[in-house]
């Protein structure tokens, strides 16, 4: 139980940086939506370019975050040698990538469909190269149990980026997409300077260690590429498969903006991941490790379901983050959030093949999910537009999750509380359906009833898994 408390504490700290940071980043959504109308497609450009950035980030880190945690926790390895070797590897490939992109900038921009705006591509290439390298010192901070330092740097980047965007798009009434990328480049460069003290190359470069790390990491790279394609493939291919090319940017802008509301689930998953990855590898030798993993899975599902209900119940308020011409896309929010839950569960399940060094399985599962996602997009986007994108993500993550569970139970069985989890899922679904068909037109009455439904879910959680008497402060008053 002490391990779970430590995990909860670190998740809370990482969660503050992730959730608060993403929430602050939400401020950019209404800023961009107000400055760039849906019809202009400006936010569609931002959505597509950042989708490419996410994919390239996975390629340029090539599984080295997970590999670092795996090797740095091995008793036979010297932590300083592992860290410096990773820095040399990721730093070298990131520098090579940036140089090649600058050398072939105009052909790349033309190939991506932005021949008149090559620096959209150029700036984001520099950003993704620095971001990939920064992943290693950030992983080092996590390894050294310095979540506050980690969170401070992440929040600094976000706040600075928001301030620059607000000054230009709000105070100066600008509308040029160029500056959305330019400000990102400035902020990433500043964080790069602040991370210099964490760049410890003194351990040298170990060729044999690098080879062993690459053998371990290449399936994770394949897994990561397939996984990130599940998140961004629809945004990358949308303009190329939607029949009306002029309307494609508008549709993509609406989908991209509305999906942002659903990203609270990605925040929770990311916060959990930051704490859970070093926690799992550190606990792998403990006798009760499987029991702890099972409990962590259940708690993760409980809180993501709570987040799901909170967002969908108060969507009538959250929609004001966006301009009214984006509201037609709000129907994707519950679907995208459900897909994010599947992704989070899949991430939790994925540790069986990481702990057994059979990372090839992750590649198989992710590619199966990705194939389903791409197929659904290609077949149905021309007919149903971005709604097909939302359902494709749902189906792709569900497939990867189920495959990982069934194979994992044979290779590395863990006794999950399936009955308890299913009860929570069933209750959440019932409450969601009830909330969707409430007959009330008055917004205050509608939100009031939905709040009662949310309280009902919380009450069930407290009664079933989090009794008040086990909370020290409340228990003190109960005893009195």
Write the layout of secondary structure elements.
Blueprint: H1 2-26, H2 28-35, H3 42-61, H4 64-72, H5 79-103, H6 105-112, H7 118-143, H8 147-171, H9 178-194, H10 207-241, H11 245-261, H12 264-283, H13 289-313, H14 315-318, H15 333-349, H16 351-355, H17 360-384, H18 386-411, H19 418-436, H20 443-464, H21 472-479
Helix pairs in contact: 1-8, 1-12, 2-8, 3-7, 3-10, 3-11, 4-5, 4-7, 4-10, 5-7, 6-7, 7-9, 8-9, 10-11, 10-17, 10-18, 12-13, 12-15, 13-15, 13-19, 13-20, 15-18, 17-18, 19-20
Radius of gyration: 23 Å
Q: What is the end-to-end distance?
A: 26 Å
Shape, per Cα inertia axes: globular
What's the tally of helices? 21
In round numbers, the mean pLDDT is 84
The largest sheet is: none
What's the SSE pattern? HHHHHHHHHHHHHHHHHHHHH
Low-confidence stretches: 471-478
Strand content: under 5%
Secondary structure category: mainly alpha
**Range of helix content:** over 70%
For the secondary structure, the number of strands is 0
Structure characterization notes:
The chain has 480 residues and is mainly alpha-helical. Helix content is 80%, strand content 0%. The protein is built from 21 helices and no strands. It has helices spanning 2-26, 28-35, 42-61, 64-72, 79-103, 105-112, 118-143, 147-171, 178-194, 207-241, 245-261, 264-283, 289-313, 315-318, 333-349, 351-355, 360-384, 386-411, 418-436, 443-464, 472-479. Helix 3 packs across helix 11 (245-261). It starts with a helix and ends with a helix. The relative contact order is 0.11.
């Amino acid at each position: 139980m002490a391990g779970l408390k430590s995990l909860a504490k670190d998740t809370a700290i990482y969660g503050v940086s992730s959730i608060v940071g993403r929430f602050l980043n939400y401020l950019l959504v209404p800023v961009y939506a107000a400055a760039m109308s849906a019809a202009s497609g400006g936010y569609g450009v931002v959505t597509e370019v950042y989708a490419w950035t996410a994919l390239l980030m996975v390629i340029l880190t090539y599984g080295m975050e997970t590999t670092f945690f795996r090797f740095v926790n091995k008793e036979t390895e010297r932590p300083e040698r592992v860290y410096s070797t990773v820095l040399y590897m990721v730093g070298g490939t990131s520098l090579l990538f940036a140089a090649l992109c600058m050398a072939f900038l105009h052909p790349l921009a033309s190939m991506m469909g932005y021949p008149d705006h090559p620096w959209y591509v150029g700036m984001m290439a520099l950003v993704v190269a620095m971001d990939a390298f920064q992943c290693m010192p950030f992983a080092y901070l996590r390894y050294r149990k310095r979540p506050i330092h980690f969170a401070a740097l992440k929040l600094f980047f976000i706040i600075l980026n928001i301030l620059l965007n607000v000054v230009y798009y709000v105070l100066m009434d600008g509308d040029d997409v160029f500056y959305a990328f330019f400000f990102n480049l400035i902020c990433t460069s500043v964080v790069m300077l602040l991370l210099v003290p964490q760049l410890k190359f003194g351990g040298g470069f170990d060729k044999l260690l690098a080879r062993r790390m690459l053998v371990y990491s290449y399936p994770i790279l394949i897994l990561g590429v397939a996984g990130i394609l599940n998140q961004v493939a629809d945004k990358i291919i949308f303009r190329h498969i939607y029949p009306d090319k002029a309307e494609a940017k508008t549709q993509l802008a609406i989908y991209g903006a509305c999906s942002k509301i659903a990203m609270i689930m990605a925040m929770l998953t990311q916060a959990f991941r930051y704490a859970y990855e070093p926690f799992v590898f550190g606990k792998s030798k403990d006798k009760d490790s499987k029991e702890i993993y099972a409990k962590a899975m259940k708690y993760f599902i409980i809180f993501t379901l709570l987040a799901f209900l909170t967002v969908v119940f108060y969507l009538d308020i959250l929609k004001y983050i966006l301009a009214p011409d984006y509201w037609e896309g709000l129907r994707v929010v519950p679907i995208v959030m459900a897909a994010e839950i599947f992704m989070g569960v899949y991430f939790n399940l994925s540790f069986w093949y990481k702990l057994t060094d059979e990372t090839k399985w992750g590649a198989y599962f992710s590619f199966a999910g990705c194939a389903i996602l791409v197929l659904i997009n290609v077949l149905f986007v021309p007919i149903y537009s971005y709604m097909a994108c939302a359902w494709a993500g749902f189906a792709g993550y569900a497939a990867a999750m189920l495959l990982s569970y069934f194979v994992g139970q044979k290779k590395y069985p863990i006794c999950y509380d399936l009955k308890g989890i299913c009860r929570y899922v069933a209750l959440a679904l019932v409450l969601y359906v009830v909330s969707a068909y409430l007959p009330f037109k008055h917004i205050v009455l509608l939100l009031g009833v939905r709040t009662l439904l949310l309280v009902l879910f919380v009450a069930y959680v407290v009664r079933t898994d989090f009794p008040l008497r086990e909370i020290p402060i409340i228990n003190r008053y109960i005893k009195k």
